[in-house]
Amino acid sequence: QVQLVESGGGLVQPGGSLRLSCAASGNGFSVYNMRWARQAPGKQRELVATITSGGTISYIDSVNGRFTISRDNAKNTVYLQMNSLKPEDTAVYYCNAFRNFPTGFRDYWGQGTQVTVSS
């Protein structure tokens, strides 16, 4: 079982920056692949960035070059550094831990943190 708690959201002006954190408790954080996803009002949740247990990173096109995902296994924490923020980045951002174990697929989500980009 893994519990995830996001923090770092808030109100920022266009062009500004925020750093989101996701603290994990429970066992085996380092073996999980981690993702950040977001959901804007009236829209489906979309995956934003992924970092695997082995450190492979990927982003959706709309944030590539502006967002950076990283993880610190010693602190059981994954981060999302968001620069050059745009109004269309406004959403609730969620942290996700997932892995396909021999015993089955494990998938955990945090409660989300609101990011609002507005002047």
Gyration radius (Cα, Å) is: 14 Å
Straight-line distance between termini:
40 Å
Count of DSSP helices? 0
Helix/strand order: EEEEEEEEEEE
Assembly of the depicted chains: single chain
Q: Unreliable stretches, pLDDT < 50, 5 or more residues?
A: none
**Outline type:** elongated
The chain-level structural class is mainly beta
Fraction of residues in β-strands: over 45%
SS elements, strand count: 11
- How much helix, percentage-wise, in residues? under 10%
In round numbers, the mean pLDDT is 96
Biggest β-sheet, characterized?
Answer: 7 strands, mixed
Topology:
Blueprint lengths: L1 E6 L2 E3 L5 E9 L6 E7 L6 E6 L5 E3 L7 E6 L4 E6 L8 E11 L2 E6 L3 E5 L2
Parallel strand pairs: 2-11
Antiparallel strand pairs: 1-3, 3-8, 4-5, 4-9, 5-6, 7-8, 9-10, 9-11
Verbal overview:
With 119 residues, the protein is mainly β. Helix content is 0%, strand content 57%. It has strands at residues 2-7, 10-12, 18-26, 33-39, 46-51, 57-59, 67-72, 77-82, 91-101, 104-109, 113-117. Strands 2, 4, 5, 6, 9, 10 and 11 form a 7-stranded mixed β-sheet that branches. It has a 4-stranded antiparallel β-sheet with strand order 1-3-8-7, with no helix packed on it. A hairpin with a 2-residue loop joins strand 9 and strand 10 (104-109). 29% of the residues are buried.
